[in-house]
Write a structure and sequence with these properties.
The complex is a heterodimer.
Chain A (H helix, E strand, L loop, with lengths): L1 H12 L4 H6 L3 H35 L3 H13 L3 E14 L4 E3 L2 E3 L3 E15 L4 E12 L1 H4 L20 H4 E9 L3 E8 L16 E2 L12 H4 E2 L1 E9 L3 E8 L23 H4 L3 H4 L9 E2 L14 E10 L2 E11 L4 E10 L2 E9 L2 E18 L3 E20 L1 H8 L7 E17 L3 E12 L18 E13 L6 E13 L4 E13 L4 E11 L15 E9 L1
Parallel strand pairs in A: 12-16
Antiparallel strand pairs in A: 1-4, 1-25, 2-3, 4-5, 5-6, 6-7, 7-10, 8-9, 10-11, 11-13, 13-14, 14-17, 15-16, 17-18, 18-19, 19-20, 20-21, 21-22, 22-23, 23-24, 24-25
Helix pairs in contact in A: 1-3
Chain B lengths: L2 H26 L19 H6 L28 H8 L10 E10 L5 E12 L6 H5 L5 E11 L7 E7 L9 E7 L4 E5 L15 H5 L6 E11 L11 E5 L5 E5 L19 E10 L9 E9 L5 E8 L4 E11 L10 E10 L4 E12 L57 H13 L17
The chains are: A alpha+beta, B alpha+beta.
Chain lengths: 551, 453
């Protein structure tokens, strides 16, 4: 049993588990064997050391060194100051062998081995006035430990590897002044609008998308990129009006060359990319075109500032709201602004530029209880709806780009309105089973073949439809400390492709103590063509371990 | 004197008169029990005073407009039917029925001794009268109270918020509340499905119904006798004091063996500090609660205010599911008829899972919300993450061994109504705790014992 337990641990730990992997070929079997071994270990624990484990469990329940020796003594010494901290470690490991996939030299197994320390402090000057500071320290040891040649993103941007700049470390810093009816928050902050899983009207801040398709709603809190802004809210009886004035701007961070989740569809291959400094520093692209410096909004120009407003109304079982956001496109559009010739032929001059966008959104939810549902009886449920209409989003127009490359006119960019919307139905079944069904829809107006990706629109097609299904249930025998959940996201598409693959996430979370939580996560990508949203990640099924201590 | 003041004055006078009357009669029946004497009495053993106070009819006149309500207006006058006692008990929900702020310290312990605790600051807006009258008088679906909860401990819950809008139920309006939650990690206010009423909160013993209270019209009520309670919540012998907080935040220590069932301001204690109770049974009406997972509830109601000091819940098969025991305190002295009593400390014992939870209401601060304060009682207020009243509690348990004991089962009382059998292992743990004076963890199981005192 000891050997089996060690094998299971080494399997979870990742690269050292090759022996087990050679025996167990199929991913589902791997998961089952993992669970079986875990169960065996658990049974062994029951048989041999029930009382010892219970004693350990009891001691863990009050194990909080950070609170006992750090936050509480400081808070006692400085009344008005409150401090909290979180240490989180994520490790994700591919279950597939090394393999070149598309343009990627995927010789690594670790997708991330990130440790994030968050220290938050707030000082209350008076019941109405408070200063808050939230700081992040991050180190991703996968770039040191894994040793794969395919992981070289820290040469592109150090923030993939560690946070060592003021911008990244001082994550949020703001002063808040509150009265019963008015809220004024000034400083660097993040805003989360919306109620859905996924981003619909949650459009204010940019995002660090380093995890690409594996970025989950639960990660947004640490992946949003905060901005300096003034945030005012006025509360009427059942109505609130929120206005944002945002002089600052942050662009999205996307998976760069040499990062674990860089798309296999993106040329050139890693063998060329990793030694191409011009490409890595965004002075050139895969075609060899010259890329000029990105034109960014400038906070010193008031006309470059962003403005947003949100109105929320609660009326009995119904709540609804409207939003508007005069924003900048988060990803710069690569405008063709000229051409030149060198030894390799005619090439283009590209000027990346962020463009203005108008976002119009709506959100609503409604709750009711259905009676006399067969087999269930009463069934409480909630309905949510959310939509964002974006005017004049920029798409790379590859047809036009090809024409320009062969001497035609144009700038390689095409403007289209987009719509992203979702409905969500959440049910509370007996035995604490929670089910959410969330059909999500993305549409690009005036779509045509050859369009790339634009804000809010469908990916690689005219429309996408993702009926997300989520189910979770706590295990009562563990006093709900063990929570099992599954999320299935099929990605349907039209009118060009039919299906872009399905992502399935299975998760077991366990409350190790009131302060420590652990999760085991298996994420599977299957179906769809190799150029589909999930299809391109066929060989990226992975097992993740997450540990979090909060004090 | 305006009309409202007049009503309050008259109610206070009549309450005072009632108090005097009851005090005399209470003293008459307030002799101490001799040690070992049977404390419980069936209907035919009620005292003359008790017989005068109760109305044993089950078929009383109905309200003309709402036939599932008694014709006599709340809060009724003596003699009281079992149904009327059920309605009176509605006033005493887990959370007091007047506007206030308090720190709610809560915890749960498993049979292995795994202890979790937390603190939430509650802001309550009682929208109408500070008793069950407004809830009874409202139309089905109408709101009668709004609760905001701001969790401050443990750290992982810090900043989690909930808003409950409590609604009166009706046959066609089964939803008991609107439920919104704010999660700091998502920074989103989300409407949640109304919770399943009899299903416990995650990881604890108590359900939403235990917190919100039952609505008397959903049950058939009958009186089964009287009893004297001398204990409800049981402190361990190794916890000599408990630290409580005043509304202004000042902390003070109280000896645990000095805490009485309804604290010092209750005037009707027997000489041995026992509390005379009526014992009533509520059975869910099938047309109201067709798939309710509870077959009956049994209440021990103090005989003067009808405050529920002990509540038992039985599952669909009639087996004991839950025992709730309370210590109450008069927090609002302005209210008549004992309506100012509120739960101070409640212990819930899940007899199937052997799970013990508690909830202690601390730093109780009465409030009259100004018009502009009411903006705080909207879902979007939670996005502000503003802990407006930083009430604190130091009443949490220091170690698993100092946790509250499982309540007594009293299996000998009303045996024909109460199936108090627990599993042999739970019975062994109860016996061990009773012997040690505190919870005992580890191997205490005996296989030959199916009942415990």
């Amino acid at each position: 049993m000891k050997v089996a337990c060690q094998k299971w641990l080494s399997y979870v730990a990742g690269p050292t588990s090759r022996v087990v992997l050679s025996v167990v070929e199929k991913a589902p079997l791997k998961v089952m064997s993992t669970l079986a071994l875990a169960a065996s270990c658990a049974l062994a624990g029951v048989a041999f050391a029930q009382d010892d484990f219970a004693a350990f469990d009891r001691s863990m329940a009050t194990f909080d060194p950070g609170g006992k020796y750090l936050t509480k003594p400081i808070e006692r010494a400085l009344p008005g100051l409150s401090i909290n901290g979180t240490i989180t470690h994520w490790s994700d490991y591919l279950v597939h062998d090394d393999e070149d996939i598309g343009f990627r030299d995927r010789d690594y197994r670790g997708l991330q081995m990130q440790t994030l320390v968050e220290i938050g402090a707030s000082y209350r000057f008076s019941p109405n006035l408070e200063l808050t500071s939230i700081n992040h320290l991050m180190y991703d040891s996968v770039y040191d430990v894994d040793g794969g040649d395919g992981l070289y993103a820290k040469r592109v941007d150090d923030s993939y590897y560690k946070y060592n700049t003021f911008d990244r470390i001082a994550r949020e810093l703001y002063v808040s002044y509150r009265t019963s009816k008015l809220d004024v928050v000034l400083g660097k902050q993040q805003i989360a609008w919306g109620k859905m899983d996924g981003q619909f009207i949650d459009a204010i801040n940019s995002m660090d998308f380093r995890e690409s398709v594996q970025l989950e709603a639960a990660d947004y809190e640490v992946r949003r990129l905060p901005m300096w802004m003034a945030n005012l809210t006025y509360f009427f009886d059942d109505v609130s009006l929120n206005v944002l004035w945002i002089p600052d701007f942050e662009a999205n961070v996307n998976p760069a060359y040499g990062s674990a989740w860089q798309s296999p569809l993106l040329p050139p291959g890693d063998e060329n990319a990793r030694n191409n400094d011009a490409l890595l520093n965004n002075r050139s692209n895969a075609a060899g075109d010259r890329v000029l410096q990105t034109k960014r909004p400038d906070w010193k120009h008031p006309s470059d500032h962003q403005i947003a407003a949100r109105l929320d109304i609660a009326s009995g079982a119904l709540t609804w709201g409207l939003v508007y956001y005069y924003a900048w496109e988060r990803d710069a559009s690569p405008f063709v602004t000229g051409r030149f010739t060198d030894g390799s032929g005619d090439l283009l001059i590209i000027t990346p530029e962020h463009e203005r966008l108008h976002h119009f959104g709506a959100t609503s939810d409604y709750a009711w209880v259905a009676k006399n549902v067969p087999l269930i009886g009463t069934l409480p449920m909630v309905f949510r709806a959310e939509a964002l209409y974006t005017k004049d989003a920029n798409f790379v127009d590859y047809r036009n780009l090809a024409a320009v490359r062969s001497g035609g006119s144009g700038n390689g960019i095409s403007e289209h309105d987009t719509l992203r919307a979702a409905l969500a139905f959440e049910f509370a079944f007996p035995s604490k089973i929670s089910v959410i069904f969330q059909p999500s829809f993305y549409y690009t107006f005036d779509w045509h073949e050859g369009l790339g990706v634009g804000y809010g629109g469908a990916i690689g097609d005219e429309w996408n439809f993702a009926p997300v299904f989520f189910i979770s249930r706590p295990v009562q025998r563990t006093r709900d400390r063990l929570m099992l959940s599954a999320t299935i996201t099929p990605y349907l598409s039209g009118s060009n492709k039919d299906y872009q693959g399905t992502k399935t996430k299975l998760m077991a979370s366990y409350e190790i103590s009131p302060f420590i939580n652990g999760s085991l996560i298996y994420t599977d990508y299957h179906g769809g063509d190799d150029d589909g949203l999930f299809g391109q990640f066929h060989q990226y099924d992975n097992i993740g371990v997450e540990l979090q201590y909060e004090f | 004197m305006n009309s409202n003041c007049s009503i309050i004055f008259i109610r206070a006078l009549s309450a005072g008169a009632l108090f005097g009357l009851l005090l005399v009669s209470g003293l008459a029946s307030g002799e101490a029990e001799s040690p070992g004497a049977q404390s419980w009495r069936t209907l035919d053993q009620l005292t003359p005073w008790e017989r005068e106070r109760v109305d044993l009819r089950t078929n009383t006149p109905r309200d003309k407009k709402v036939p599932y309500l008694p014709a006599e207006p709340f809060p009724f006058t003596a003699p009281y039917t079992a149904e009327e006692m059920g309605f009176r008990a509605m006033t005493f929900t887990h959370t007091a029925r007047w506007s206030h702020v308090m720190a709610d310290a809560f915890g749960t312990i498993t049979k292995e001794g795994y202890l979790t605790q937390g603190v939430t600051v509650a802001m309550i807006d009682q929208m109408d009268s500070p008793n069950a009258a407004s809830q009874i008088a409202k139309k089905p679906g109408e709101a009668y109270s709004r609760h905001m909860y701001y969790y401050t401990y443990p750290p992982k819950s810090d900043g989690v918020q909930e808003m409950w809008v409590l609604r009166r139920t009706g046959l066609e309006s089964p939803a008991k509340l609107d439920y919104f939650a704010y999660t700091p990690s998502l920074r989103r206010v989300r409407r949640q499905p109304p919770p399943r009423r009899e299903t416990p909160f995650p990881g604890v013993a108590q359900s939403f119904d235990d917190i919100l209270g039952l609505e008397a019209w959903e049950f058939d009520w009958r009186l089964i006798g009287a009893d004297v309670l001398h204990e409800t919540v049981r402190f361990p012998t190794n916890r000599k004091t408990i630290t409580l907080a005043e509304p202004n935040g000042r902390f003070y220590d109280v000896a645990t063996d000095s805490i009485k069932l309804m604290q010092e301001r209750y005037p009707f204690y027997k000489k041995d500090d026992g509390v005379n109770c009526f014992v009533v049974v509520g059975t869910p009406k099938q047309d109201w609660l067709p798939d309710f997972k509870v077959s009956k509830v049994i209440y021990w109601l103090d005989q003067y205010y009808f405050y529920p000091l002990r509540i038992e819940r039985f599952d669909e098969e009639g087996k004991l599911k839950m025992i709730e025991v309370r210590i109450a305190q008069q927090e609002n002295k302005a209210l008549p008829n004992g309506e100012g009593f509120a739960s101070n400390l409640v212990v819930y014992f899940d007899a199937e899972l052997d799970l013990i939870s508690y909830s202690l209401h601390d730093a109780h601060l009465m409030q009259e919300w100004a018009e502009e304060d009411l903006a705080a009682f909207t879902p979007d207020f939670m996005r502000r993450r503003w802990l407006k009243y930083p009430q604190q509690s130091q009443s949490m348990v220091n170690s698993p061994e100092e946790y509250y004991l499982r309540p007594s089962l009293f299996p000998e009382r009303f045996p024909s109504e109460r199936s108090m059998t627990v599993s042999p292992v739970i019975a062994a743990r109860i016996a061990a705790q009773n012997k040690a004076g505190h919870l005992v963890f580890g191997s205490v199981e005996k296989k030959d014992n199916s009942e415990a005192p």
